Structures are given as structure tokens and as C-alpha cells.
Amino acid sequence: MFTITYLTKTLIIMTLVIKLVTSQTLDEIKAQIINDWKSIALELVPNYQGETAYPEYQRRQWNFTSDSGFSTLIENFEDKSGSNRKISIQGQGEIAFQGASDVISGAYLCQFNFSKSAIITLHTDEFVTAFNGAQQGQDGITWVKDKPQDVTKLAVPALGKQSNQFFLAYDLIYIRDDYLYMGEVDVFGNEATLDNPPKGLCAPLIPFSDDETPLTLDELKEAILGGVWQSLTKEVRPSKNNQGKLITTFQTRKLTFLSESNYSLVLTSFPGPGQTSPFLEMEVIGPFVWEEDASQVVAGAYFAKFSMSQLYITPMNDEMATNLNQGLPEGIEPFKNGQKANLTGKEFPALGMTSDSPDYESDMVYQRQNRLYLQARPVDGGMLYPKERRTYSLQRDLIDPERSSFNLFLLLNLIVILML
């Protein structure tokens, strides 16, 4: 009968555990990418025109037929209904990996070359007029509403594409726990380029076959407890500066449900992506109450009202403490580097806190596997208040590391080994 020594068993277990905690190599990414992937729900994307950001919604499908071949369908919608399409882009081609991302560990930069096909369909009269105005009949193209147009080697001036050139798109690929992530550059909707690669991750894609039974509200209430839900990496998030202008910020989130009716949220702000040190930490503590079903976004999601009863600010370096102390409002003690200050119930206009500021947001909660999703932030950098400002879309996922230590395959392996 076959037996296994204690030393051999230990070495196998150590190998499996190391496999779980180390960053993926490019070869591992290439092996896992071969699949059909889809959006979990409609994704909120910014459409920045002039000085105003407008919300659009997007659905993505990607099929990687090999580690170097792809096909895709990307649909943009005018609103959250998912029925009023603006533009659809289909394509096939090759993916070329270009090296590791210097801001997201384990992610790899890549170029998508739509060399086999690129088909665009316009679904609104406004788009048809704009595209024809730019096209001026070049390459014999006249855009017609809802008519697919093969532009693989043809010019599309409205999108900056020239004749006899393939569409090229730059992005990144990151895979964790059977979730595939691509990247985003900023909150203005700018596309990545070779010189301006992605700075953060988009909402993840899941395998086509990975549909799950939606949680009931009672199941959701139980599932979110007992974990610390945190960002996978620094997130690209919309905010406003002191002049009310939309800006790109980089933050991480750590959300804890302290009980069935109370939560703690820690937002840590960074000056940029990559391995930079934080400059400010904000902690909000308060009650939350469940509102109505949010299945119009994704089955199993529910709206919830998160109120703020306590607020703490911690400057994380001397420069930030000095900046906060400029024009310090009456009744607030001077800030010190690394020292938490209680600002509950106090006004601080420099941080957007006034007597008129709302003390709650109308958010959303969705949980699947070891991931938790809140509602996507409004593209204008404002708050999820009042209810009319709900975005009806999921933002990037938070992960509970304690629930993601083992995937099912490796867990079964460990159980078998321990029984030998």
C-alpha cells in the first residue's frame, strides 16, 4: 500500500500554500485567461464633455480563445435600463503582453490588435450624424443607424482611426480567484496608451458559466458579517477639489460590518498609484438600514442607507497636517501627523464638511463568493445622496482575505493529503 512520509506531506502542503500567496506569473495568467468572460452587471463609465461628466453604462464580453487570441463585444448604453444602446463594438484579433504593471502587482500590460475584424454599430441618430460629419464619405463609408459597419482596415475619423490601420487598444490583465480585471486610467474616461497605462482596476469580469443563485436578504445579512472587506489595490475614484472641479483620486477602502446594523469604513488616500505612501485616512462609523430590493442592477443586490454618527481624520504625513491646519476652523484642535482627530459633528469646509452636508448615503450591497460590492460612485465626484443620485451599478469589488485563502481545488488537495 502506498504511504506518504510526514516530511513529504509537509513539503507538498507548503508548496500549495506558497502557490496561494505569491503573485501570479505571466505564464499563469496566460493559462487562466482562456475562457469566456462577461460583466456581472451594467458598468458605469464616464462620458466627459467639456467641463461636465455624464454617466454611461457598458456591458463587456471577452472570449480568449488562446493566450494570444481574443474576440470581444462591448456595448454602451444611454442609461441604466440596458435597453437604449448608443454604440456596439465587436472585434477579433491578437493580444500581446508587454510586461508587468509597475503600479499593480501581478498585473500585466498588454496590447489588443483588432487585426481580424472590427465592426461598429451606431444605435442613435446623434451618433450617426456625428460620425458622418467626421467621415465625409472617406473610404466609401456612410453610417446608418443600427447597421453594422466593418471598419477593420477602413478609416473612422470620429474615433481617430486611419485607413489601412488596425484598431489598437492598450490595457492590463489581472486574474484572481476566477475574476478577470482590466484597467482604467482616470475618472475622465480617457483610454490607456503606451505612454499612459492603466492606473487602477475596473470592475471584474466573471466566467460565462459562473452564474450563482442570488442571495436572499437574510442570507446577505449573514454573509457580510465576520469579515473585513478591503480593496485589492489602490482604486481610481472620482472626487472634487476645493473649487468643485472633478479630480482623479487614489484610495483604498476597508469596510467592516460591526453588527447587523452598524458599520465602519476606512478610506485611505494616496497621492498617486503604485507604491506611494498615504497622506490621509478617514474613518466613518455609523448605523445602516436596509431599504429596497436592487435586483434591477443585479439579482441578489439590496439598497441600504449608510448614516454617519462618528467621523475621524488622521493626517499621515507632516505636509498634510500642515495643510489641514491652514485656516483651522474654531473649535478644532491642530492636527498632528499620525494622530487621529475626532471631527464628529464639526464643520470643516476644507474637507467639504458643512452644516448643509448630508450625513448619509443611499448605497447598495451585493455579495458573491469572497467579494463584496457597493454602488458605483457618481461620475461627477459627488455623493450618493439623495436617492435620485443612485447609479444603479457596481463599483470595484472588496475582498475578504480570510475567505479567499483557498480555492476549492486546492482545499480538496489539502484535505486529501492530510488524510493520507
UniProtKB/TrEMBL annotation:
Keywords: Signal. InterPro entries: APCDD1. One of its GO terms (molecular function) is Wnt-protein binding. GO terms for cellular component: plasma membrane. Residues 1-23 form the signal peptide. GO terms for biological process: negative regulation of Wnt signaling pathway. The keyword Signal applies. PANTHER family: ADENOMATOSIS POLYPOSIS COLI DOWN-REGULATED 1, CHROMOSOME UNDETERMINED SCAFFOLD_56, WHOLE GENOME SHOTGUN SEQUENCE. This is APCDD1 domain-containing protein.
